[in-house]
């Protein structure tokens, strides 16, 4: 069985998602957590683009439309997260979520 | 055919709050009035929609006439109508409460903070309502993702509104949890599209077959929704986020926002993955629910602060909703379990909003919400304590409350299919709920000789809490109508209960 190019990209997307998830759980610095979420999101987008690439001869527009929407959502999410992180830093003086930290995320 | 019959009501229930979000941002002075008018308007549009669904069955509407796959379709059936009714009714009560809460000088500590809160509460709440209504009307799983994100953004910003250290930290954690949950869900959407080349719920319903792709999609979407829905043991973010928000926000987050994730899970489970789910996965979700009921109640029992107690009670009550999955396994009891859990959602929404509003009144009057120091509060705030007690009746599940009917139907489903373990759990959960409600009332009803100095609580704030708690109790007396509506529009799989 040969590895189709789209499959390679799809697996890379899965990999990015996993890397992002790991960093989201393992890293404590808020900026790193926000970046980790972006990496996770990029993983999903790459997966969607790989699916779109699958159809011949022209790419399937639906996943591409989803990725466009997803990018808009993810930009907004990052903006909100950065603003909140900044607020966390000004009120607590630190860039980590310290108190009662029973959380992984 | 009159205009009332043909109007696209499902569109209005999204457009109204969305435009109100912009208007309340532009006209800050009039914001409370715009907000109340919008929630009243959404009650009207939901009434129109309900009439249409009762009359002619489930509806479908193509926004802009584009249609699938590139356009957005909306659809409404019995379940979505009931959810919309819930958000509209809770919306009116919370808006009336909030109009007074944010204009009352004593309600918040500093005037600057108060002006800030008032300026941002209304637009965010309107966007929250728009996202929520859009979510309940979504006809495809990608649209569900987008509305879930819209809802999440508004909810997180509202949770951060208090601006205090604890609130900001809780909101940040909430945002991280919410975003990762949504990404899990989106990944599930992508996998389903990869496998079946559509995101439309109706088109997918017949297509999804057991297999590695369907399993991974289910696992990803379910874990995303479980973390967003604060299902034990992924509930860690909920109590601080809900308890540190301003009172109207706590009520909205606890009553409506967590239900959105559960609503999606319910739809996916019964409509999409009916052929994929196994008894083991259903039992697993049920066990998570059991954990939530026991752990949430136990935590609620020894919280020092009233608002934290109410928030942990939400964790416990969400556990009951998870019981629908194992109980609906048996074909004979599926419909009962399904109606029970939807009714539970409605009853809990009313009771929990009332309870949070009453708790807010008590905290406002006393200047703190330490349960141990609440003695004598009944003398000063009889209405709010009554609201708390009535909401407690529904949470415990005493007749004739909505919570009683919901738990009764759950018990029927459990006993009818011979699942005594789940039945015992439901009863134990009720006892625990009784214990934590009584714990508050015990302190509240203690008489004191010298009354403590108390802040005055505006009457609208007391009455809106009481009205909702009365509704929570009376829901038990008008159960037939909603259950009938639910049946008439229920997903097809409910009429032919053959799924295992």
Automatic annotation (TrEMBL), chain A:
Main location: membrane
The keyword Mitochondrion is assigned to this record: no
Keyword Membrane: yes
Cell compartment(s), UniProt: Cell membrane
Gene3D superfamilies: 1.10.287.3510
Top-level lineage group: Bacteria
Keyword field: Cell membrane, Membrane, Transmembrane, Transmembrane helix
Residues annotated as transmembrane: 6-25, 34-53, 65-85
Any one Pfam family match given in the protein's UniProt record, by short name: Oxidored_q2
Topology term for the membrane: Multi-pass membrane protein
GO cellular component: plasma membrane
Record-stated family: Belongs to the CPA3 antiporters (TC 2.A.63) subunit C family.
Descriptive protein name: Cation:proton antiporter subunit C
Originating organism: Candidatus Propionivibrio dominans
From TrEMBL, chain B:
Main location: membrane
Top-rank taxon: Bacteria
NADH:quinone oxidoreductase/Mrp antiporter transmembrane domain residues: 138-432
GO CC terms: endomembrane system; membrane
Compartment(s) of residence: Endomembrane system; Membrane
InterPro entries: CPA3_Na-H_Antiporter_A, ND/Mrp_TM
Ranges that cross the membrane: 6-26, 33-54, 79-99, 120-138, 144-162, 174-195, 215-237, 249-270, 276-296, 308-329, 335-359, 380-400, 420-442, 463-480
Membrane topology: Multi-pass membrane protein
Coiled-coil residues: none
UniProt keyword list: Membrane, Transmembrane, Transmembrane helix
PANTHER family in the cross-refs: NA(+)/H(+) ANTIPORTER SUBUNIT, NA(+)_H(+) ANTIPORTER SUBUNIT A
Record-given protein name: Oxidoreductase
Species: Candidatus Propionivibrio dominans
